[in-house]
Amino acid sequence: MASTIQYLTAKIAREIDEELMSQAGAFSLDQLMELAGLSCAQALVKVYTRDMYQNVLVCCGPGNQGGDGLVAARHLGMFGYQLVVYMPKFGSKDVYKRLHQQCDNMDITTLLSNVSVLKAALPTTHVILDAIFSFSFQAPVRAPFDAVLNRIQASGKSIMSVDIPSGWDVDRGPDVDGHMVIHREVLH
Q: Are 162 and 130 in contact (CB under 8 A)?
């Protein structure tokens, strides 16, 4: 019997998040980020072993997806990986600031804003964890994220994305209307 893979739509993913954070679900945003970030770190460890992929660049957007990336960075640091966090734009939510402080407390290097610092970090990077945009992303990709996605795409490095590759439309797939996204051929 052939099995078919089914994917969540953006609407269903939002409804799941809402239900988990409702009174019935009783999860806080912090708890969900912790679970997501730990799961991403564990998946990366399974696919990209530390002996071959020691240096991880975690690219974090300013929203909840970036928070998941910060949690993953913290766990990867505890798993013995060498981390650099890159943030094209710093998140404004208190939870994001706390998660970033936890990375600072672990002496995880953070690079901010400038695409040239991202370019400088790439030669020593073994794998990139893409935590820039989530399933709620709406095209088109705007500055500074367009240049960031282009630089990541052009790096030739292996990329693991949280939830969905940044820039993809969760319902319609990659490269909707010719907008810059991380393409599937670099998702190893």
A: yes
- In this predicted model, what pLDDT tens digit does every residue of 143-185 receive, in sequence order? 899 999 999 989 999 999 998 888 887 777 666 555 556 655 4
The token pair that represents 79 in the structure block: 């798993």
Residue 13: which residues within 8 A CB-CB, separation 6 or more? Answer: 135, 136, 170
Give Cα separations from 25 to 28, 32, 136 (angstroms).
Answer: 9, 11, 21
Per-residue confidence band for 22, with pLDDT thresholds at 50, 70 and 90? confident
Give the residues across from 55 on adjacent strands: 82
**Structural contact between residues 64 and 126, judged by C-beta atoms closer than 8 angstroms:** no
Q: Which helix (H) or strand (E) holds 143?
A: none
In 10 A of CB 82, how many CB atoms?
Answer: 17
Give dist(CA 132, CA 7) in Å, integer. Answer: 20
Tokens of 69: 């990336």
Give one DSSP letter per residue of 82-112, joined into a string: EEEEEESS---SHHHHHHHHHHHHTT-EEEE
Name the nearest CA neighbour of 82 among 48, 121, 108. Answer: 108
CB 183 within 8 Å of CB 176: no
The residue among 55, 67, 37 whose CA lies nearest residue 155 is 55
Query: Residue 67 has which token pair?
Result: 């928070």
